[in-house]
Design a protein that fits this description.
The protein has 196 residues and is mainly β. It has one helix at 79-86, and strands at residues 9-12, 15-18, 21-25, 31-38, 41-47, 50-56, 64-70, 74-75, 98-108, 114-122, 125-140, 147-158, 179-193. Strands 3-6-7-9-10-11-12-13 form an eight-stranded antiparallel beta barrel.
Length: 196
């Protein structure tokens, strides 16, 4: 993590933050991923298609973010598993082709991290969610000279809270399911400053 300011960063109450402005998520250098249990094993997947924007305000607590994800771009490294996940019993992509996160507030947390509060729309259901985020810094690209910033975000949800509640229990092993209910969100974001 960077600790010194530059022309695209500043200090606010001792915390390094980006300069104010509109930052567009760079989908080519961003990972929107998740982890979920398959039986006993943690399996990781990602969504390949998405777009979003981050507004850094003069006062950081008034900043906002949103991201819209193309659900059909799901990649779990297994075509059959992806087909099942996108079907009517789970994500029902034909009825709900996108999911969307829209922030409702941001607040400083411990160790120079931040809590980004918002609403997630998944499978037609809206629920509150908070993401634990960490800003890694901002620099100017050595070739394009454009400003880029980086941060990571993690969160957790239960898919059943969004009506995606097919459980697929393993009858021979009580308490074990083919697909777990808890989803761990893992995002690595790179964004470009639009008004620089």
């Amino acid at each position: 993590m960077m600790t010194e300011t530059s022309d695209v960063t500043r200090l606010e109450h001792g915390r390094l933050i980006p300069v104010p402005g509109r930052w567009r998520i760079d989908s080519g250098h961003t990972h929107v991923g998740f982890g979920v249990r398959h039986l006993l094993t943690l399996v990781r997947g990602r969504f390949a298609e998405f777009e979003g924007e981050i507004i850094i305000a003069d006062e950081s607590v008034h900043s906002s973010a949103e991201i819209t994800v193309d659900v059909s771009s799901l990649d779990v490294g297994n075509a059959k598993a992806a087909e099942t996940a996108l079907g009517e019993m789970l994500l029902d992509v034909e009825t709900h082709p996108t999911m969307r996160f829209t922030s409702t507030g941001v607040e400083p947390a411990e160790d120079d991290s931040w809590l980004l509060h918002g609403e997630l729309t998944l499978a037609g259901t809206v629920r509150p969610i908070s993401l634990h985020t960490r800003f890694h810094g901002a620099v100017r690209h050595p070739y394009t000279k454009g400003a880029k910033m980086s941060f990571s975000a993690t969160g957790r949800l239960r898919r059943s809270d969004f009506g995606v509640d097919a459980s697929f229990p393993v009858e021979s092993s009580p308490g074990v399911f083919i697909l777990g209910d808890r989803i761990d969100l893992i995002l690595e974001i790179e964004a470009d400053l639009l008004d620089a």
